[in-house]
Amino acid sequence: MTARKLTVLAAGLSQPSSTRLLADRLTDAVVARLRDVHGVDVELNIVELRDVAKDVTNNLITGFPSPKLESVIEQVTHADGLIVATPIFSGSYSGMFKSFIDVLDPKSLDGMPVLLGATGGTARHSLAIEHALRPLFSYLHAVAVPTGVYAAAEDWGSTTDSVGALTSRIERAAGELAALVAVSDRSQQIRDPFALDSSFSVTGGFSAA
Taking the model in full, what pTM does it have? Predict the structure, then answer.
């Protein structure tokens, strides 16, 4: 079976960050499900947005991506599935995360299976996945799995209840994304955007409108 391409988009600002920690936990769970349950090999790409933050800003100003940013955009848009994790500031996703989304072609995530993850200092922001992230990816015509995973500061604590609840959400979301990625053929359908459509006839000439 052809390996599936899985890209992870981590928008944490610090290093190390709880956002990257959540992204890694989600990634490990999805990869395990794909390999152990679906028998699918995984080609994994992990993107730290902080590493291309200046490139994203320059792209917004000039309209042209740097080679480094272009490579990241390709890893994201040519994947069979996407895991995103962003910190929540003032009740919504980070500005850096949104800026990266803004440099993507609006149609590039059409049909993309996506697992939505977010982190924050308090559980009060847990609904940000539903009122901010999910509508954003719905607008882009991506297929966000039903279970979003939000991790507050207390979820990384030592109590059995908090750790167990987070683990349960991670496993449920991973199963949902793995099921979609296992049958995805998005990465095989991506073609050269400058290639001629097969319906174009070079011998047919042009007709007047």
Answer: 0.87
